[in-house]
Design a protein that fits this description.
The protein is mainly α. The chain is built from ten helices and seven strands. The strands form three sheets. Strands 6-5-7 form a three-stranded mixed sheet. Strand 5 and strand 6 form a beta hairpin. Helix 4 (74-85) crosses helix 6, helix 5 (122-132) crosses helix 6 and helix 7 packs across helix 10 (254-265). The radius of gyration is 18 Å and the shape is globular. It starts with a helix and ends with a strand.
Amino acid sequence: MLKAKIILVALGAALVVPQALAGSTPEEDRKETVEYFKQMFPDVAIEEFVNGQYALDEDRRSQWESMQDFPPYEFAVAEGQEMFETPFANGKTYASCFDNGGIGIRQNYPYFDSGKNEVITLELAINRCREANGEKPLGWKKGAIASISAYMASTSQGKPINIKVPDDPDAMAAYQDGKEFYYSRRGQLNFSCASCHVQNPGKWIRADLLSPTVGQPANFPVHRSKWGELGTLHRRFAGCNNNVRAEPLPAQSEEYRNLEYFLTYMSNGLPVVGPATRP
C-alpha cells in the first residue's frame, strides 16, 4: 500500500490515461478511472483512496494517524453543530430545509436539480436555506459555512457516496462540463487537474504529494495546515487554479459546481470520511 512512488515509476509509463472526453457514459468513466488507479496502485485498497496522499506515503500516513486523537477541526465541527441547531430569527432551523433533517445526507451532494436546471452543492443548499428563512448568506470558502458543512459531513461518515446523473440532457451537460474542466489545461503552467491527479498522483510537486482523482471529495471540508483552518472544496479548487497561475473562478460558480459534480461522481461507492486534515 505504501510504496506508491516506487510503483508509479515502474508502471506509470505503461498505463493508458483515461480519456474522459471520449464521450462515454458517467458510469463507464467512473469504472475506467477506478481501474486505471487500481493498476497504478495495485497495493492500495480502493477504499483507502479517500485518504488521498496518506494512502500513498508511509511517513505521511504515520504523521496523520498521530493527529487523529485530537484532530484540529474538532472545535469547528462542534461550532457547526451549534449553528446548525440554533433557530433562525423566524424560529426554523437548517433541518427544515433538508431531507432527514440534514442528518446523514452528505453522500448525496452535489445533485442535479432538474427543476432549477443546475447542480446543487451542499454549501449552496446551506446558503439558500438561510436566504429562504430571511438570513444573510455566509461566505463560501471558510468560516461558518465550512463548520456547518463539516458537521453535516460528520453525520455521514462511512456512508457511500451516491451521486446520480439523471436521464436528463441538462444533467448530462453539467456532468460533461465538469469533466471537460477537469481535463482542460489552463494557466501559465498549462496544467489541467488531470495533469496532477490522473497522470502524476504519488509524485511530489515541491513539498506536496499529489493525490489521485478518486476519493478526493470524500474528505471535505478539510483542515489544511497551510490554511490553519477548515476550508471548502471550492476554496481548494481556487487554490489549484492559483497554483497553475490561472485565474480562479468564484466559489459556487456554475463551472466549479459542475466540476464538483463530475469529480464526486468518480468517487461513487467510496465512504464519506470528512471532515479531514491535509497539509
